[in-house]
Amino acid sequence: MKDLVTTFLKEQGVWVALGIGVGAGIYEFMKTKSFGKSLTVLSAGFVIAFFCLYPEQVLAKFGEGMNWALSHIKF
Predict the structure, then answer these.
(1) Closest residue by Cα to residue 16 from 44, 45, 37
(2) How many C-beta neighbours within 10 Å does residue 28 have?
(3) Transmembrane region positions (predicted)?
(4) What values do phi and psi take at 33, rounded to 5?
(5) Helix or strand holding residue 30 (H, E)
(6) What is the pLDDT of residues 28-70, one digit of tens each?
(7) Long-range contact set of residues 2-9: C-beta below 8 Å, sequence gap at least 24
(8) What is the pTM of this model?
(9) What is the pLDDT of residue 4?
């Protein structure tokens, strides 16, 4: 099941995330005429696409970052 989900994310999820990100970025630009807001929405689409393409790497780096933060933050 994990292989099926990973394969689906790599093959279709990346293109869906990019398409939605570009479409939402264009819509945001046409609605607000703000390039910064549309670039933010477009960047979010690219981040989601990267997560779909490399889920293991993203989760491993996120885990390392959380371990570093927990070791340096004193409660």
Answers:
(1) 45
(2) 19
(3) 12-29, 41-60
(4) 60, 30
(5) helix 14-32
(6) 999 999 899 999 999 999 999 998 888 888 889 999 999 999 9
(7) 6/55, 9/52, 9/53, 9/55
(8) 0.71
(9) 81
Asked if 52 and 14 touch (Cβ cutoff 8 Å), the reply is yes
- Round to whole Å and give the CA distance between 58 and 33: 33
| Residue at token pair 């264009």 | 26
By the 8 A CB rule, do 45 and 20 touch? yes
For residue 64, what are the domain limits? 2-72
Q: Count of domains in the chain?
A: 1
Tell the residue number behind the tokens 């989760």, with chain if given. Answer: 59
Which residue, chain included where needed, has tokens 């779909």?
52
Sheet strands (E) in the chain: none
